[in-house]
Amino acid sequence: MDNLRAAMMWLGIVLHVAVIYLAGPSPLPWRDNRTTPVADLLLAFIHAFRMPVFFILAGFFVALMIERRGTRAMVRNRLQRLALPFALFWPPLFALCSVLALAFMHRMARGTWGLDPALMQTAPSTPAGLSTMHMWFLWMLLWLSLATALAHAALARLAPAVPHWLGRAMARLGRTPWGLALLTLPLAGAGMLYPDGLLQPNGAFMPPWTEWLHNGLFYGFGLALYAHREALLAHYVRRWPWYAGAGLALFFATGALFEARPRGTQGLPEALRLGVALAYNATAWCWSLALIGGFLAHVPRRSAWLGYLADSSYWVYLVHMPMTIGFGALLFGLEWPAGAKIGINIAATSLLSLASYHLLVRYTAVGALLNGRRHARPALLLGQAARNT
User: Fold this and answer.
1) How far apart are CA 9 and CA 295, in angstroms?
2) CB count in 10 Å sphere of residue 350
3) pLDDT per position as a tens digit, 127-152
4) Tens digit of pLDDT for each residue in 302-321?
5) Do 32 and 328 touch, CB atoms closer than 8 A?
6) Could you tell me if 329 and 104 are in contact, meaning their C-beta atoms sit under 8 angstroms apart?
7) Are 93 and 139 in contact (CB under 8 A)?
8) What's the pTM value of the predicted model, to 2 decimals?
9) Which residues pair with 36 in a beta bridge?
10) What is the dihedral of CA 86, 106, 119, 46, to 10 degrees?
11) Would you place residue 386 in the very low, low, confident or very high pLDDT band (cuts 50, 70, 90)?
12) Cβ 102 vs Cβ 119: under 8 Å
């Protein structure tokens, strides 16, 4: 589970680099002069499962902490691991991303380096007001965790049978095709309110109800998954290839529906929008469960290098966004293929993220804040071993 969570965090680099090189409409005002449909495919592919897996795992680990440590300990943990990092890192990251985005847009508009806030005001896809940026996941998960604590305390006193009943119902839905179809319906209903049938996070500090419904359903399933983990996880380990294949077929169906869009139209007609909302959200369920089963079957333990990548993933998740924007701005204007630029940006962002983790985080109080413990420096370990011998 921890390996899977780390992999989803690392995929954020690929996702946020791909956005810069989209051939289709972009949700951001900065983009490269070279584009490729491969970027659109990468974005659609990763977006189908990344955040659903995140929220399922988040619910799973919250339920685990409540059972092992109690509700109050879970709340303290979430405040330390979510609220405090958000409060510390969001202000400088927001400021840095804003400056780098302005520099990128200055290169796009005038071909030179510079900072002109007026460019941000004229960009049609610029988010209005303050944004939680890529950290919206931490923000929403914090409130979902606190809501879970309140609901757990209230139900334990007023209706102790309700959590058990809800967990059994969710678990039953999560292991049959018709159950996944029912779980897809509310997600598709929310997606129908968007032009392309797909929910788009807006990064607001007060997210719309559609985002609470969409992400909250995956989170709630994660709570039920922990309660029924023995039966469900064994089922996903056995059936993960089936879920992966079903998700692939649904993903291709989503693409076919998009290709059926009438030329020159904005958004999708209602019938196509409904088809996309159903197919894409069903893909999210299938691939999320396939990844859980596949990782449990084939990556069940943490090796040394997997442990290192898992420990670094939280830091990488926090700091990668300004790097993708900065390297994107540096590469803008170069007449290189878009695919080459994507590869360079991903590699440079990954290497710089890892270097900053090793030098600034792993052996410091920041590492203790993000991962719950501070690693001892290798030199200290060698010195201690020498003294012991």
Assistant:
1) 15
2) 17
3) 556 889 999 999 999 999 999 999 98
4) 778 888 888 999 999 999 99
5) yes
6) yes
7) no
8) 0.92
9) 22
10) -50
11) very low
12) yes
